Amino acid sequence: MSPKRAVLLAMVVSVVALTLAVPLRTYFSQQSESDQLAGANTSLRTEVSELQSKVDEQNDPAYIQAQARDRLQFVMPGDKAVVMQFPTPPAKSDEEKRAERRAGNAWYTNLLDSVSTPVDR
After folding, report:
1. Measuring CA to CA, which residue among 57, 56, 53 is closest to residue 45?
2. Cβ proximity of 73 and 83 under 8 Å
3. Which pLDDT band holds residue 121 (cuts at 50, 70, 90)?
4. What value, to the nearest 5°, has the Cα angle with vertex 120 and ends 116 and 121?
5. Distant-in-sequence, close-in-space partners of 73: CB < 8 Å, separation ≥ 6
6. What is the 3-state secondary structure (H, E, C) of the chain?
């Protein structure tokens, strides 16, 4: 094979390679984008089905009745509503508050506070 033919063959191969490079790159990038969109589509379909099940649940009369009882304190006619009121816990003394604050501090902070604060007698 003569050197002219080798150079000509190399030029033809490079032109073909350069001609195919851009469309192949575009094809592979579009395939990647298509795969990403398919994944997003699947997740959105899952979310739509979950939301549809919530809508179906909220259209159920038994669910509506249960939510009215739990959240709004409604009762059916003839039922008696009983509301339990528990007494509030007694207020904490200053000494209890100080003890809780000291329990959350580091040991060296408590040591510094004990040295710098005068003793109450």
Report:
1. 53
2. yes
3. low
4. 140
5. 81, 83
6. CCHHHHHHHHHHHHHHHHHHHHHHHHHHHHHHHHHHHHHHHHHHHHHHHHHHHHHHHHCCHHHHHHHHHHHHCCCCCCCCCCCCCCCCCCCCCHHHHHHHHHHHCCHHHHHHHHHHCCCCC
- C-alpha dist (Å) from residue 76 to 21, 63, 69, 90, 103: 74, 14, 9, 36, 49
Flag whether the pTM goes above 0.85.
Answer: no
Q: What is the pLDDT of residue 83?
A: 82
pLDDT in tens, 14-68: 999 999 899 999 999 999 999 999 999 999 999 999 999 999 999 999 999 999 9
Q: Which residues contact 101 (CB under 8 A, 6 or more apart)?
A: none
